[in-house]
Amino acid sequence: MPRAIVTVFAVLSIAFAGCTFKSASTYKPNETGTVMQVKRVTIVSSRKVMIEGLKDDQSVGWGTLVGATVAGAATYGLTRADTPLGVAVTIIAAIGGAMVGTIIEERKNRHPGAEYILQTKTGKPFAVVQALGSGDKVLAKGRRAVVLYGRGGFVRVVPEN
């Protein structure tokens, strides 16, 4: 039975490893066909940044669960947890697996981004950090751009053509 659990979680972890992030050029299906607020801005400064770690609402993700399950099941398979020491070792292995899984998940979420300080003609400057897709480049200082306000508060900075 533990092998079946390990196999299921391994397959799930591979499936979720391909999850994507939203960049200026990436849209979800439910974002198409909706009206977005648009604001014209000038880029006051820009720089490349690294986005990494877990989201605030993602304290325990698939990496944590898979790591704990794999390490716990593997250790249980070795010790059978039929003694207090075996139980303790299995619990410690599961905790260690959860920590390793969390670290792997944080690294999986690592991708390049851009930080923009933007200025409207009449408003105060404001900042936006966004993920960069594979073909996206950081927009240069002084360039005119458009800020698109999408569903759920998601904001994109795109060049004005």
What does this structure look like?
- The chain is α+β, with helices and mostly antiparallel strands and 161 residues long.
- It has two domains: 1-20 and 53-109, no CATH class; 34-52 and 111-161, OB fold (Dihydrolipoamide Acetyltransferase, E2P).
- 37% of the residues lie in helices and 25% in strands.
- A hairpin with a 6-residue loop joins strand 2 (111-119) and strand 3 (126-131).
- Helix 1 packs antiparallel against helix 2 and helix 2 (62-79) packs antiparallel against helix 3.
- 19% of the residues are buried.
Q: What is the straight-line distance between the termini?
A: 59 Å
Work out the count of structural domains: 2
Low-confidence stretches: 4-18
Structural class: alpha+beta
Overall spatial form: elongated
SSE string: HEHHEEEE
Strand order of the largest sheet: 3-2-1-4-5
**Main pleated sheet:** 5 strands, antiparallel
For the CA atoms, what is the radius of gyration?
22 Å
Q: What count of helical segments does DSSP give?
A: 3
Topology:
Layout: H1 2-17, E1 37-51, H2 62-79, H3 84-108, E2 111-119, E3 126-131, E4 144-149, E5 155-159
Antiparallel strand pairs: 1-2, 1-4, 2-3, 4-5
Labels describing this entry:
161 residues; alpha+beta; OB fold (Dihydrolipoamide Acetyltransferase, E2P); 2 domains; 5-stranded antiparallel sheet; 3 helices
Describe the structure concisely for a colleague.
This protein has 161 residues and is an alpha+beta fold.
